[in-house]
Every structure is written in C-alpha cells, then in structure tokens.
Amino acid sequence: MCVSSRKSEVVSSSMSETVVTRFAPSPTGFLHIGGARTALFNWLFAKAKGGKMLLRIEDTDRARSTEEAIAAIMDGLDWLGLKWDDEPVFQFSRAERHRAVVEEMLSAGRAYRCYATPEELDQMRQQAQAEGRPPRYDGRWRDRDPSEAPAGRAPAIRLKAPREGETTVEDAVQGHVVFPNADLDDLVLLRSDGTPTYMLAVVVDDHDMGVTHVIRGVDHLTNAARQMQIYAALDWPVPEMAHIPLIHGPDGAKLSKRHGALGVEAYRAMGYLPQALRNYLVRLGWSAGDKEIFSTDEMISLFELDGIGKSAARFDFAKLENVNGQYMRSMDNADLLAEFRKALPYLPGGADAEARLDAGLWPVFERLLPALKERAKTLVELLESMEFLFTPRPLSFDEKASGMLTPEARALMAELGANLVALPNFSAASVEREVRAFAERKGVKLGQVAQPLRAALTGRAVSPPIFDVLEALGRDESLARLADLNA
C-alpha cells in the first residue's frame, strides 16, 4: 500500500507475528446479517492464523448509540459462537488519546487548524454541485498564518493531505485500487467542539490495538484510502486490507428487510441453528471449491482471504432453510434437543410450549424427535410439528384435514376407536398391527384409515408418523379425540 505525492512506500504492520483482526460495529441498532458475516470472516481468519479477533464498539455517535444495542450486538455474537478475545474496547472512552494524536500531528505540521464556518462549507458544496464537481474542501486555511485566526472561533483540525500523486490500496480482495489524491481533500480529524471524527478514531484505535488485518465491507474502500493518508502522516504501519463484497437480495438489489436484512436475533426467532447460519454466511462471498457444508473446524482450516470473491453475494432464504434442514437432520438427537431447549424461549409460542413440555411432555417429544426432524427445516417448524400434543380438545381442523373427515370416515374412526380400546399395550408397534388388521377386515387400503386417523388426532393432513402420534398421545387422549368426531 502506498500514500504519497511521489509514491513512497508505507511498511505494512502485517509483518507482526500474531494476526489480529477486529470487528467494530456501531451500536445504533442490532447486529444485522451483513455485520454478522463481517464478524464471522474476521473470526475465521484470526482462528485460521492462530491469532485474535478483538471487539471494538464504535460508540462515538452519542445521540444514536444505546446500551440496548451494545447488549444486542454482544448477544448476537455470543449466539453465533463468535467469541472475541480480550475485553471489548469502547471508542468513545478513548477520545483523549485521539486528541493527543492530533496534537502530535499539529506539532509535526501534518495537520492544521481550519476556521471555515458552516456557511462557507455549505457555499463550497453548492458551488461544486453547480460546476458538476464532487464537493471538496478548498483548503483555504491550509497555509494561512495562525495570526489570521478569527477571534473567539473554535477551529476544526484537518489533515494536511497530499494534493498530488495518488493513494494506492493493495487490497486482498479488491486488488490494486488507485485513488487520485486530488479527489481526497483535507479531511477533518477533530471537529470544532473537540470531538474526534470516525476516520481518525479508527486509525488510532486499530494502531493501538495492534490490528494487522482490517476485514470489512467494500463500502469502506474509499475510507481505506483516506485512513491510509492518516497512517502516512503519523508514520505508522498500515494493516493489510480486505474489503469484502456486499450482500444483495436474490433479485440483485441492495439487501433490504424484505430480502433478509434483519438483526441476528430475528434469525434465532425464526428457528435457525447458529451453526447453520454460520455455514450459510461463510458461503456468502467465500468458497472452497464446490463444498457447501462445513463443520466449524473445516471452516477454520480452509478459510483464506483469497477465497473471497469480488462480486456481491446474494441472500436466499430458501438456501438458508435448506442448509438449516441439513444440519437438523444430521445432528445427533441429543444435540438437537439441547439446541431446541436453548432456542425455545425465543420461538413464537415457545414460552407456552416450554411450560407444557415441562409439565411432563419432554420424554414424549424426545421419542418423536427422530421422526419430527426429518420433515422440519427450522426449529419453528419442529415446534409446529408437535403442536398436536398441546392442542386442547375438541380439535379444530385445517382445510385438508376437514376434507378427509367425511361422514363415512367419521363412522370408520368410531369403529376403529372401539377396537383400540381393548388393546393391552398401546405402543406404536401394537397400534400399527391393530390398524393394519382393521383395514384388512374392512377391505380398505391402509391410507383410507391412516389419513382420517391423522386428521382426527392432529387436526392436520400432515404429521409425524401416525403410530408414533398415537403412542405419544397415549390411549386416553387418542380415544377421546376419536370420540370427539361424533360427539
């Protein structure tokens, strides 16, 4: 990377032995899905290199930063399994350090006091717009004598940026990116009220935290050029840069809430496993051959920056569901049960379901889980598939189930119920034998008995295996639901 009017080289800090990355969210909202992927890439790269990922909360926007957002960001990272190293750094608390660095730059003649008024700055913007130019500060206070300073006016402090030549970013993802220095004006380092700007604070904090690799969204690429000029003015080594592609919706448009630009907590409430969401996110912009499903250890061992493409990734809920379903089916039942227990308070209707399960239904759910997980793509669907256990009598029937329960089918169910009463053992196997024998005696196919039986017991046309349902409900509840049909 270089920043100069004569292309002088800036030594990279990536020569450091330990790789240090950072995730630096602004706590003005929840951890959104793009931020989660950025955190994941930083975490994976640090783990792959035996380094550390640090967390910095960029809370300098005091009007919009909230404790709730900070808690939500940390909770989201925790849920995703992206544990940061060391204590979090809060940017606002470092303001004195930021100001001290600017004083050093002033003393070295690499920054200057600017007394331009808001009205003058607005006039510059208007004139640039009228002339079809990008708005740029015109440098009017760059070389003026301090004695010309207006009395009583607090100055902003600006970087004395190079005006000729170019700033070059050698980016691990975007490649060789050149910015003419004429397009990068003397940016503000300290506002007139003494508060540091984002551009300055990021550079000072990354330097002080020992960050070796800055991995962030490509929308920060211009920021990289400006920040490199600050590094050059301070004679500090520049971290390696990797600006990752943005995430778009499946239609190629900028990701919005309708596409999936939601907080991570929304994905937990939709019933996605954190392991599956990690797997899905790592494939948004990064690849390792044709492999789609990765364990965490595989992600770490395979992750390299050169596997990240330049093109925008496309978010696709159908693919996320598919990945989540694969994880659920392949998980050990005990592990899936543990994930379900942790997720239950966050799922729609989960609190009520948890109370009912705690009342004695967990063993029943555990018996049904192997069958239930084969059809479910999310934990919400898993919960929905067992709702028949909780439904109070008399059941209400969905449209398809209602269509199955014709007068003839209801009469058949009454007769079947009378046969099931006498069963000495109400297990799935014994019930199946009796239902099959009943269908044979009646001269009908098994489905002609099993389908209305499913509708009568669950209120739906689709359910877990019907004989497992009978065992789960037990003799009394099963017979009572059949009796309700003709009550």
UniProtKB/TrEMBL annotation:
Enzyme class: ligase
Domain Aminoacyl-tRNA synthetase class I anticodon-binding, residue spans: 364-483
One Pfam family matching this protein: Anticodon_2
UniProt keyword Acyltransferase, yes or no: no
Residues annotated as domain Glutamyl/glutaminyl-tRNA synthetase class Ib catalytic: 19-321
Catalytic activity as recorded in UniProt: tRNA(Glu) + L-glutamate + ATP = L-glutamyl-tRNA(Glu) + AMP + diphosphate
Family: Belongs to the class-I aminoacyl-tRNA synthetase family. Glutamate--tRNA ligase type 1 subfamily.
Assembly with partners or alone: Monomer.
Protein name: Glutamate--tRNA ligase
Lineage: Bacteria, Pseudomonadati, Pseudomonadota, Alphaproteobacteria, Rhodobacterales
